[in-house]
């Protein structure tokens, strides 16, 4: 059986709470799926780090972008790797107006609830990816 | 860059924000501390992956601002990416230079007391450099 990992790459956008949400979602997914989910440093892809490029090429990739600039997705595509899934965190935020992130450093209670909601959805997609692998 | 422009320019701070290492979280938090508190009016930033995902304007960042890069480890991704796509950096900081024991940085997301201390020391080091650069540019 193929035993590829799922590499979750958040954009971690520094100027917006939504960037912090993307980052915390990646950590939450790794907490929920410790045997399957890993990450790479996005900046290492931007700088052209060979080890990180190999890691995304050898595994499944999920990108989490804060906004329509799609930085995590485009930095992955720059090395010829199409993410298996790309999520726009802003869309989840729009669908969950009651779960509003507060600040960039501390996303607050609303932000943490949003992280939980998004992570649960993505974890079920990861299960699907791994399920299809067995077929 | 025109001399007047150079004098008015804010200092750019670019964090690697490395997700895979606790030091990357420190680089991000120290950078935010400087941007939002310590040097609110003197600094600016850019989401680093925009060097690839963004446009020409994004890649002008280090040409428009004297730039300090803040990296989590010896790979110096923020420095390398900035110099590859944008321009020479004015100063580069490596969080690992502030870490005395590996136990200081155990997990990626949460801040313990040691990580808070290191974050604060890195933020202080960035702020000192911001002052030096501004002083130099305004001579
Ligand atoms: S996708 Fe948007 S928020 Fe995320 S790093 Fe890019 S510009 Fe910043
Ligand atoms: S400098 Fe180190 S911590 Fe920062 S992005 Fe690169 S590999 Fe990650």
What does this structure look like?
The complex is a heterodimer of chains A (135) and B (139). With 135 residues, chain A is an alpha/beta fold. Chain A has a single domain, classed as Rossmann fold (3-Layer(aba) Sandwich), CATH 3.40.50. In chain A, 53% of the residues lie in helices and 13% in strands. Chain A is built from six helices and four strands; from the N terminus they run βαβααβαβαα. A four-stranded parallel β-sheet of chain A has the order 2-1-3-4, sandwiched between helices. In chain A, β1 (6-10), α1 (17-32) and β2 (37-38) form a beta-alpha-beta unit. In chain A, α1 packs across α6. Chain A is globular. Chain A starts with 5 loop residues before the first strand and ends with a helix. The relative contact order of chain A is 0.20. The mean pLDDT of chain A is 95. Chain B is of the alpha/beta class. Chain B has one domain: Rossmann fold (3-Layer(aba) Sandwich), CATH 3.40.50. Chain B is built from seven helices and four strands; from the N terminus they run αβαβαααβαβα. Chain B has a four-stranded parallel β-sheet, sandwiched between helices. In chain B, α2 (22-38) links the parallel β1 (11-15) and β2. In chain B, α2 (22-38) packs across α7. Chain B starts with a helix and ends with a helix. The A-B interface holds A 9-15, 19, 23-24, 26-27, 38-49, 69-75, 78, 104-105 and B 15-21, 24, 28-29, 31-32, 36, 45-54, 72, 75-78, 80-81, 84-85, 108-109. Bound molecules: iron/sulfur cluster (SF4) (2 copies). One iron/sulfur cluster sits between chains B (16, 18, 20-21, 23-24, 71-73, 75-77) and A (41, 43-44).
Mean pLDDT of chain B: 90
CATH topology of chain A: Rossmann fold
What's the total count of β strands of chain A? 4
Strand content of chain B: 5-15%
The third-level CATH topology of chain B is Rossmann fold
User: What profile does the largest beta sheet of chain A have?
Assistant: 4 strands, parallel
Number of distinct helices of chain B: 7
Across the major sheet of chain B, the strand order is 2-1-3-4
């Amino acid at each position: 059986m193929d035993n590829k990992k799922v590499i979750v790459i958040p954009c971690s956008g520094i100027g917006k709470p939504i960037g912090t949400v993307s980052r915390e979602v990646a950590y939450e997914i790794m907490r929920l799926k410790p045997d399957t989910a890993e990450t790479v440093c996005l900046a290492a892809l931007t700088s052209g780090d060979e080890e990180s490029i190999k890691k995304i090429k050898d595994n499944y990739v999920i990108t989490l972008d804060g906004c329509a600039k799609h930085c995590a997705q485009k930095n992955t595509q720059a090395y010829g790797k199409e993410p298996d899934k790309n999520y726009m965190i802003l869309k989840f935020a729009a669908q969950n107006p009651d779960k509003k992130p507060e600040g960039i450093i501390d996303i607050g209670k609303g932000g943490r609830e949003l992280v939980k909601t998004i992570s649960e959805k993505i974890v079920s997609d990861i299960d699907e990816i791994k399920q299809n692998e067995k077929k | 860059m025109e001399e007047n422009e150079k004098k008015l320019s804010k200092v750019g701070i670019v964090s690697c924000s490395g997700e895979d290492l606790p030091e990357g979280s420190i680089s991000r938090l120290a950078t935010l501390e400087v941007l939002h508190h310590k040097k609110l009016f003197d600094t600016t930033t850019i989401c680093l992956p925009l060097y690839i995902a963004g446009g020409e304007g994004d890649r002008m960042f280090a040409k428009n601002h004297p730039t300090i890069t803040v990296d989590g480890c010896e790979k110096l991704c923020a420095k390398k990416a900035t110099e590859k796509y944008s321009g020479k950096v004015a100063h580069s900081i490596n969080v690992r230079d502030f870490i005395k024991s590996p136990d200081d940085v155990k997990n990626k997301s949460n801040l313990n007391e040691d990580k808070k201390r290191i974050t604060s020391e890195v933020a202080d080091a960035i702020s000192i450099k911001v002052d030096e650069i501004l002083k130099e540019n305004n001579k």
